[in-house]
Write a structure and sequence with these properties.
heterodimer, A: 299 residues, two-stranded antiparallel sheet, 2 strands, B: mainly alpha, globular
Chain lengths: 299, 296
């Protein structure tokens, strides 16, 4: 057995394991774990990040205030409504499109990729431009609705009735492709011979869908739903540019509310406690997601 | 056969329907390009001008301070002297931060991914969960303590600060997706090399790393897009100097008074590279969005 005398000859497997993992975990420790521990501490204090006074320990005061404050509960409800509506629409539209796209034809690849484009774009850029499209007076959306269907002008982003829906519309526009992508991937795993066998038995379209298609794509559908739910909870960019949380607080979904508290009012301690409650929800969801991810992992 | 003919006909109808849906769906993007190539007056005219002579002035003006007033520059000043607006500087920041953080994330992430792919690591499941959690974390949660920390460490409003942040953010993604790419490289590669007397460390750099090229390229393009699009950290961890393009575009206020042609032009500049990259990535999109769990 000849030895290659050069750089890295003497690195044992154990050393390699350590040195290949250390940079990743050092960065995570420094940039994620440490800040999170610090913000956990801050969540028990009264603190203003731009004032000179040091954090004042107040125990569970912040948490008690949050849980008893109807305003906060209202934000939770707004967030739930936003997440639920967005994910639901994305699911059905994406599913429908995937069923239509699931056939062989020339140019399928290009057509599919074009459908996927919106989720790759910068949400903040999209949100900004949607505020032009959805503008009450100058927006093309109101013009088209008026010209085609005679619908009177709607104050999309600026009225209590519509502001949350304009966020839902934007989110659905951006993220429907994700549902489409995962459903298509699921549909491609259904073996064709099952359909052929069903054909021989003269099975109905519904039967094929219910007993062949659906069972095969369910794992991916659940994965897609979980991921989108988690991701919708983080929705911030578009709120910032499209509605600014308004009118009033009607579109202050949680991330935006936290932003407001932390960087507009500088209630740093208080905002950390909301952030932590928020974080627990996300971690719980992502735990379910990762477990599921490992289950469907195609090796 | 009648049956096959009917099916073919049905297929054609569905494809036509799909194309119609696609046109409606991508209309906002068309409208962005149209607005970017219209004069200020035409951009606001309703009923809209469907036929017009496209101009490129908006694309020029976003790079010039004070041109056309408002968007992405300062208010119009009566001066003929040419000065750059802030936009080219912000774009450059986006490019620098994007490329460096992507390079770091992909390299560091690939090393760890190799270990996770080839070795039994104690508590592997937990470690991988921690890594992925850092990715799932809502940026707004982590940015509160980080903003304070960055000020203390003098990292606030620096390119380095943003580079570190994006590296960390893309690292989780890189580890997960690279692990799935490395899983596909046969173990025999380094085993054969080790029989030949190389250490595993040498074998990794000499034989495995080159095989990882395509996977690393796909991972890099994904990371680049994420850094290019990122908003929350850029907004709250930078001020004037290190600001990237997304928060700059966000901060063009108002509606009627604003030069939407210029904002649209800036948006087009943000969107076009992503369109190109998406087409390059198209075989890997599913893998990217499921963190390597589904190979597509």
């Amino acid at each position: 057995m000849k030895k290659h005398k050069s750089f890295g000859r003497g690195v044992s497997e154990r050393a390699l394991k350590i040195w290949f993992l250390v940079p990743t975990f050092a960065l995570l420790l420094f940039m994620i774990i440490f800040p999170l521990i610090w913000s956990l501490y801050l969540s028990f204090t009264k603190y203003n990040a731009v004032a000179a006074a040091p954090p004042l320990f107040v125990g569970f005061d912040n948490y008690a205030r949050i849980l008893s404050d109807p305003d906060v509960w209202e934000r939770f409800i707004i967030t739930g409504k936003f997440v639920g509506l967005s994910v639901l629409f994305e699911f059905f539209i994406g599913f429908g499109l995937a069923l239509l796209l699931n056939r062989e034809f020339k140019g399928k690849g290009i057509l599919t990729t074009l459908f996927l484009l919106p989720m790759m774009f910068s949400p903040v850029v999209i949100g900004k431009f949607f505020s032009f499209i959805l503008d009450t007076n100058w927006g093309i959306a109101n013009y088209i609705l008026g010209a085609l269907f005679g619908i009177p002008k709607i104050a999309w982003a600026t009225s209590y009735e519509w502001a949350l829906y304009s966020l839902v519309i934007t989110d659905v526009w951006i993220w429907t492709p994700f549902m489409l992508l995962l459903t298509l991937a699921g549909l491609s795993t259904v073996p064709g011979y099952l359909y052929e066998a069903a054909e021989v038995d003269r099975a109905s379209g519904w039967f094929k869908f219910r007993y062949i298609t659906l069972p095969h794509i369910t794992p991916l559908l659940i994965l897609a739903l979980l991921f989108r739910t988690m991701d919708a909870f983080r929705f911030f960019d578009v709120v910032y540019v499209l509605t600014g949380g308004g009118p009033g607080s009607s579109t202050q979904i949680l991330p935006y509310y936290i932003y407001k508290e932390a960087f507009q009012y500088w209630h740093t301690g208080y905002s950390c406690s909301i952030a932590y409650i928020f974080l627990i929800i996300i971690i719980a969801l992502s735990n379910i997601y990762v477990n599921y991810l490992n289950r469907v992992r195609t090796a | 056969m009648n049956h096959i003919k009917r099916r073919k006909y049905q297929n054609t109808v569905i494809i036509v329907i799909l194309i119609v849906i696609l046109c409606i769906y991508l209309f906002p993007i068309y409208w962005m390009f149209a607005t970017a190539t219209k004069t200020k007056l035409d951009a606001f005219s309703l009923p809209p001008k469907w036929i017009y002579r496209p101009i490129i002035d908006n694309f020029k003006n976003i790079f010039i301070a004070g041109a056309g007033g408002g968007a992405l520059g300062e208010v119009k000043i009566a001066t003929k002297r040419f000065t750059w607006s802030l936009f080219p500087h912000q774009l450059l920041n986006s490019i620098i931060v994007g490329f460096i953080s992507t390079g770091l994330a992909v390299f560091i992430g690939s090393l760890s991914a190799y270990v996770f792919s080839r070795f039994k690591v104690k508590g592997e499941g937990d470690l991988l969960f921690i890594i992925l959690s850092s990715r799932m974390l809502p940026p707004i949660v982590i940015v509160i303590p980080l903003a304070i920390m960055y000020r203390v460490l003098n990292l606030y409003d620096t390119q380095i600060g943003l580079i570190i942040m994006y590296t960390v953010f893309n690292l989780a993604f890189a580890v997960w997706i690279m692990r799935s790419f490395i899983d596909e490289i046969p173990k025999e590669y380094e085993e054969a090399a080790m029989v030949d007397g190389y250490s595993r460390f040498q074998a990794f750099f000499k034989f495995v790393l080159p095989e990882m090229g395509p996977g690393m390229a796909a991972t890099a393009i994904f990371s680049l897009i994420m850094a290019w699009n990122e908003f929350t950290f850029a907004l709250l961890l930078t001020g004037e100097r290190a600001r990237t393009a997304p928060p700059a575009i966000a901060h063009q206020l108002g509606t009627a008074g604003v030069n939407w042609g210029q904002i649209a032009a800036g948006s087009v500049i943000m969107v076009v590279p992503v369109i190109v990259f998406t087409f390059i990535l198209r075989k890997n999109l599913i893998r990217g969005f499921t963190f390597g769990a589904i190979k597509g």
